Amino acid sequence: MTDESTSADRGEVTPPEFDPEDALVLDDDRFAPENVALVTGAASGIGRATALVLAENGLTVVGTDVDEEGLAGTAEKADEFDVPGTVETVAGDLREDVPGIVESAAEHGRITYLANVAGMQHIDPIEEFPMDAYDAMQDVMVRAPVELSKHCLPRMREAGFGCVGNMASVHGHYVTSDKVAYNVAKFGLRGLTQSIAAESRGDTEAEGNVRAFSISTGYVKTPLVTDQIPDTAEQRGVSVQEVVEDVMLGQSRTTEMMTPVEVANLFAFGFSEHASHLNGGDLRFDDGMTLTYE
Question: Which domains does the chain show, CATH number per domain?
Answer without folding.
Answer: 25-223+254-283 (3.40.50.720)
